[in-house]
Amino acid sequence: MRQKAVFYHAGCPVCVDAERQLAASLDPARFDVEIVHLGDQKSRVAEAEADGVKSVPALVLGGLPLHINFGADIADLR
């Protein structure tokens, strides 16, 4: 069974670079990865916050938010 992973980002250069690196490193046989561009999908900002995301880019894996570098504060995306 594949584990769900949600990658939240805002489309900034830091986020796009992190997305490229993650897409290449997560095994698709083990992970079902969903990419969520919060700049385009503002309705999902509350979901990201509920998942514990404080800044983007962030990967939520197994219910735990993993913050990657710093592109934007989640409050700036509301």
From TrEMBL:
Per its UniProt record, what InterPro entries does this chain match?
Thioredoxin-like_sf
Question: Which domain of life does the protein's organism represent?
Answer: Bacteria
Instruction: Identify this protein by name.
Output: Thioredoxin family protein
Which species is this UniProt entry from?
A: Lysobacter panacisoli
What lineage is this protein's organism placed in?
A: Bacteria, Pseudomonadati, Pseudomonadota, Gammaproteobacteria, Lysobacterales
